[in-house]
Write a structure and sequence with these properties.
binds zinc ion; two-stranded antiparallel sheet; globular; 3-stranded mixed sheet; Serine Threonine Protein Phosphatase 5, Tetratricopeptide repeat
Length: 394
């Protein structure tokens, strides 16, 4: 009874676009998030999702171009090649990948280092492409709209309440609730059925694009192995939304057995494309340890780890951002400002450096400079915290 009345309310509100076939599975479903709403939602939240996930991997644009190239091959053979798909690499050691409705996809460098070949990358991207193509994000929103009793919502996006999420816990800093919708979309748990569906149709796309589907099996095996080793980064990343399971590994294996043999793995090509990333791995692990040392208040250790990271890779903005945080804690304000400036020189598009420098300048009484930085931070990644600081600054 209740369901029927909600249906009519949604109809009146203009949400119901009617019964439609799922573009991937062909199943008949009730759709009340339209394709143009999917696209709008993805576009609106993509940049915030990237900021919340560590920002773009600016130091290596060739790697992002490569991921786009592999992604585009899969999109071309997918069931929704007309969606405005986009792929970015994010600057985070947390192994993760996600897709927003409308085809906006991200993969972290922390996942790329664990892949063996191009076909495994295609398995990751094919899986995420299916989440977007099969409307998994849109469907979970539709469920939330049905569950939600506040039907006065005039905007579909409003139905997704801002929540704290693991995706928003960036290693380098605290994120407020302002970009909560993006964070929520990014960390959506689709459920067991959708995950199996994403694996299965993702493998179809792999084969159509010429990739060996056995890579979807080896990928799951890698996930299970890393999960068993209880690597802490893995627990907070992909596995928070994608628990690895023998079930998925087995299902992929059974499916691969029925698929064409002798397709491309592309190991050499992949290893060549991630060679620079691999070279920087020890710098990033020194940085990650530095972040932990700072959180524990061990400032001297944090600083020496940061210097070590900078020595190995002098062009990574993140390292100077951390250096600024440490110097700021040590009350070396001018040096901290210089470190943030250096971070911004290497990457002017990540909110965190403006966020931190703005707060430091505010504390130093330099109101105008503080305001400019905090406004830039808000532009890139709106948070309630900074909105309050800006209000106070007048
Ligand atoms: Zn998934």
């Amino acid at each position: 009874m209740r369901k029927i009345s909600i249906f009519y309310l949604l109809l009146i509100l203009g949400f119901v676009t009617g019964c439609a076939k799922n573009p991937v599975t062909g199943a008949t479903e009730l759709h009340f998030v339209s394709e143009s709403q999917e696209i709008k939602l993805g576009e609106k939240n993509y940049l915030y999702g990237q900021q919340a996930g560590g920002g773009q991997y600016a130091i290596d644009p060739e790697l992002t171009a490569y991921v786009n190239e592999v992604g585009s091959k899969l999109v071309k053979v997918s069931d929704r090649k007309d969606l405005p798909f986009e792929f970015v690499v994010l600057n985070s050691s947390v192994p993760n990948a996600w897709a927003l409705p409308g085809g906006k996809i991200a993969v972290n460098r922390g996942l790329l280092v664990h892949l063996d070949n191009e076909a495994e990358l295609a398995a990751v991207l094919g899986h995420e492409i299916t989440h977007a193509a099969a409307r998994h994000g849109a469907k979970s929103m539709e469920r939330q709209i049905l569950i939600s009793t506040g039907l006065a919502a005039t905007n579909v996006a409003l139905a997704t309440k801002a929540k704290e999420s693991t995706a928003a816990k960036v290693t380098t800093g605290a994120i407020g609730a302002g970009a909560g919708v993006a964070a929520n979309l990014v960390s959506t748990k689709y459920g067991r059925e959708a995950e199996l569906e994403a694996d299965s149709y993702g493998m179809n796309y792999m084969v159509k694009a010429g990739y060996d589907p056995n890579a979807a099996v080896s990928l799951q095996k890698t996930f299970v192995r890393l999960f068993d080793n209880k690597s802490p980064n893995w627990l907070e990343g992909l596995f928070a939304s994608h628990p690895p399971s023998q079930e998925r590994a087995d299902a992929n294996l059974q499916r691969a057995l029925t698929m064409p043999k002798g397709l491309t793995l592309g190991k050499e090509r992949y290893q060549q494309k991630i060679a620079k990333l691999k070279n920087r791995e020890s710098a990033y692990s020194a940085y990650d340890d530095g972040v932990k040392a700072l959180a524990k208040g061990d400032l001297n250790n944090a600083l020496s780890l940061t210097e070590k990271a900078i020595l190995q890779e002098p062009n990574e903005a993140l390292f100077y951002g951390l250096k600024g945080d440490i110097l700021s804690k040590q009350d070396q304000k001018e040096k901290a400002l210089a470190a943030y400036q250096q971070a911004i020189t290497y990457d002017k598009n990540y909110f965190y450096y403006y966020h931190q420098r703005g707060l430091l300048l505010e504390g130093m009484g330099r109101k105008m400079d503080a305001k400019a930085d905090l406004e830039r931070s808000q532009q890139l990644m709106p948070t309630e915290e900074i909105a309050n600081h800006l209000k106070a600054l007048g």
